[in-house]
Amino acid sequence: MTTLRLAIVGAGPAGIYAADLLLKAERKFDVSIDLFDQLPAPYGLVRYGVAPDHPRIKGIITALRDILDRGQVRLFGNVRFGTDLTMDDLTRHYHAVIFATGAIRDASLDIPGIDAAGSYGAADFVSWYDGHPDFPREWPLDAASVAVIGNGNVALDVARMLAKHAEDLLPTEIPDNVHAGLAASQVTDVHVFGRRGPAQVKFTPLELRELGELRDVDMVVYDEDFDYDEASKDAIASNKQVMVIDRILQSWRKRPGLNNAGGEASRRLHMHFYARPIEVRTDAAGRVSSFVYERTRSDGHGGVTGTGELREVPIQGIYRAVGYFGSPLEDVPFDERHGVIPNHEGQVLRQDSNERVPGVYATGWIKRGPVGLIGHTKSDAMETVRHLINDQGSWWHPDDPSPEAVVALLDGRGIAWTDIDGWHRLDQHEIALGAPRERARIKVVDRDEMVQVSRGE
């Protein structure tokens, strides 16, 4: 029987789900899968893109770990595609590859002043507070008033982490350097701005409700944002999620002393709707000094239109949370406009001719863009895997598909790669670091230390 030697690049949920689905699928060939990731630890955005105070979401790691622990997939961590391992290497040692590299860059926001000192991408901030080894250990939190641009879950995560008191994060797996940075934060006011109204937001009720539960943080909403048009009223009446979001916001309006001004808490989190970004203004030193937005209004069809009224809010820092964006890969087609690998249902296409690239597939956010929750990744992978199985006739013909070949290749290049046993060592090490302080774990941030612990060195 033919054995498919498959490489999957990216060990986040998308890559792991693809491996699991292929192993469980009905097929007329055996399967041998190698999973590669540039980080020494697996799980991608579940480990490095979910806020540390969301342990229930991180519970998905249990399911991913069960897949890896079955022993049917080999993990090669700390291996960078394009340098440590190339497309030529893959074609020599595998029959096909699935790219599941996700989207970790910030989408751009094209307004004047967005690149000023004190202006940041939300994805970079998330990577910092999640202890991503390839990001700086320190983050400037010297601004008293900051703006967060966006009305999705990432915007709320960023706003919550900025407003939350550092000591309330101690029970989580927050890295020590991040806790120290947040403990020294000067933030007193966080302003969240979205273009549309409360009935058209992209965040989920759970994320919103958590904001109102923060200790010593007042939620500030504004009466003018709740003069609903018929389209908004219909959305609230017909959609349970929108109804719950409205109920939460309305409850904040009823809190004594909070509406429009704030109460007695030491920090405030302001929710601004109908606000289209216009400009980031700066001071004489070139640092962020204020945010200018145009007041919008409902267009009656679920969208908004401009009113021409400009407003200015004094701030000293700004975070854009307007979406994630994929990164190009060496020798792989890439759509610069949409930040994805061009594909048809996961089958990668050439950019110039739209013809299929034999043996090359994509799944997850690098395939469809950064939309949908983690659970959507499984159905997405199913589509890609189905094509991979049916495309047996167009697989590559590797010179040496033996499982030992790629190990010899990486060792010969001096790559300090990590495996699933190494992840178990690192996992237990982090848990042990946290135990004396009654914390879930203390995440190791330094890449070299991660590798040394993983490799038992």
Features:
about 450 residues; alpha/beta; Rossmann fold; FAD/NAD(P)-binding domain; 7-stranded mixed beta sheet; 6-stranded parallel beta sheet; 16 helices; 18 strands; about 20% strand
Number of helices: 16
The helix-and-strand class reads alpha/beta
Oligomer: single chain
| Annotated CATH homologous superfamily of the largest domain | FAD/NAD(P)-binding domain
Rg, Cα atoms, Å? 24 Å
Which CATH-level-2 architecture of the largest domain? 3-Layer(bba) Sandwich
Shape: globular
CATH topology (level 3) name of the largest domain: FAD/NAD(P)-binding domain
Proportion of residues in helical segments: 25-40%
- In the sheet with the most strands, the strands line up as 3-2-1-4-18-17-16
Task: Report the top-level CATH class of the largest domain.
Answer: Alpha Beta
What composes the largest sheet?
7 strands, mixed
Structure overview:
By secondary structure, the chain is of the alpha/beta class. The chain has 2 domains: 194 residues, Rossmann fold (3-Layer(aba) Sandwich); 214 residues, FAD/NAD(P)-binding domain (3-Layer(bba) Sandwich), CATH 3.50.50. It contains 16 helices and 18 strands. It has a 7-stranded mixed sheet, with helices on both faces. The longest helix is centred in the C-terminal third of the chain and has 15 residues. The protein is globular. It starts with a strand and ends with a helix. 44% of the residues are buried. The model has no long low-confidence stretch (mean pLDDT 93).
